[in-house]
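Colleagues,

For the teaching module next term, I've prepared a clean inverse folding example: a structure given as tokens, and then the sequence designed for it. I'd like students to try predicting residues themselves before seeing the answer, so please don't circulate the second half yet.
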């Protein structure tokens, strides 16, 4: 059984460049609301999913079959 996971990330162009660079260090700054925290969360999830598969996939516990990973979505509600 082959499963693949994908992350539906909505990134600004500069966030995409920072996320996909081959550089070993990235300096990403700016004012409040520039997406720095969002970029770091996305990078952490991607890194952890790759690490998880490297450690556990050969034992049959891939990231996509991990029972401890959930998707929770939030949306703004107008009052």
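(Answer key — instructors only)
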């Amino acid at each position: 059984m082959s499963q693949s996971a994908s992350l539906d990330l909505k990134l600004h162009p500069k966030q995409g460049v920072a996320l996909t660079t081959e550089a070993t260090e990235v300096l990403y700054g700016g004012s409040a609301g520039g997406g720095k925290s969002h970029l770091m969360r996305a990078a952490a999830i991607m890194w952890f999913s790759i690490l998880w598969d490297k450690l556990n996939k050969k034992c049959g516990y891939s990231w996509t079959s991990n029972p401890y990973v959930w998707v929770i979505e939030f949306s703004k509600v107008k009052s």
